[in-house]
Hints:
By secondary structure, this protein is of the alpha+beta class. The protein has helices spanning about 5-15, 30-40, 40-55, 80-90, 105, 110-115, 120-130, 195-215, 220-230, 240-270, 275-290, 295-304; strands at about 60-65, 70-75, 130-135, 140, 145, 150-160, 165-170, 185-190. About 50% of the residues lie in helices and about 15% in strands. The chain has a 3-stranded antiparallel β-sheet with strand order 2-1-8. A 3-stranded antiparallel β-sheet has the order 3-6-7, covered by helices on one side. Strands 4-5 form a two-stranded antiparallel sheet. Helix 1 crosses helix 4 (about 80-90) and helix 2 crosses helix 3 (about 40-55). The chain is globular. It starts with 5 loop residues before the first helix and ends with a helix. About 25% of the residues are buried.
Amino acid sequence: MLDLNNTQAKILEKLIQVYRNKSNVITEGITGYELDKLGNLSKLFRNHREILLDNYYIRLNKIEHHFTRHKIYYQITPMGVLAYLKWVTTQKDNDGWLDKEFFPLVWKHWEELLSIFGDVLFVIFAKTINRIEIKPKNNIMIKGKVFSLPDLNESITIPLGKTEVKFFREYNSLIKQKIPKKMKDGIENLQDVNLEIDHKITERFTFLLYFNLLNHGIDVGEKINIIMPDQVSIFDQKITNDLITRKQTEINEFDNRMKNNTEKLFSIIRKDKELHKLMSSTISEMIYDLSNRKSLKIISDRLK
């Protein structure tokens, strides 16, 4: 899923912009009233906050109860950040902006990655965003029986040669937050709600981005996907031996550059213990999943 309309995207954009205050300190969130002061979003926010909460794009970060009213502070979640980034990739004139806190192992090495990969980094970043899906719970009914699905169902797409494989993961411990209706007194601090899920989603995107960067230096098909858009203009030109030679030289140079970039990235990962552990453990899990295809083995054995 991770799909937003333009209004929802603008709301999440504001939540990202106020994630830190002018002193560079992470804030406790923003109220609907404060959103209104930033861009007349109060009414729009009231109309969309339930769906943003249900999809876990935003969280209730703090609630101040004052008997007759609630003062609620909202904050964007990592899942909301991914939804916003996906929306950004569909916009022609939107650069987007993120806080380093959202994906720390990405931003920790961002400047170095940018110096290594240049504009290719943004191409692969956009591709990564579109290779991860997280869907909220949606019970289904079959023949009058209700079947409960996981709170969140995540999938990532991994290209492997001539095929693509989807790896799924379920989250069953999501605490669904609702706008309080009963009046009481006191303060609720909710910063720790769903932290484990936030951490796992952050790790998943981080893994996928680094994997895609590595894979573009190894997998031929992935390299072609990067090269081909720049080669389309060939078909509008007169094909000559000189043109073919020149384009072949460009492709070879790109191929060598990507291989060198991959080696530099391997070096970065090996030196970062936390990142190395994340990459190695996730790859090991995937290799196990790929080798544990019971249904394929049963069918293969029966065909013998």
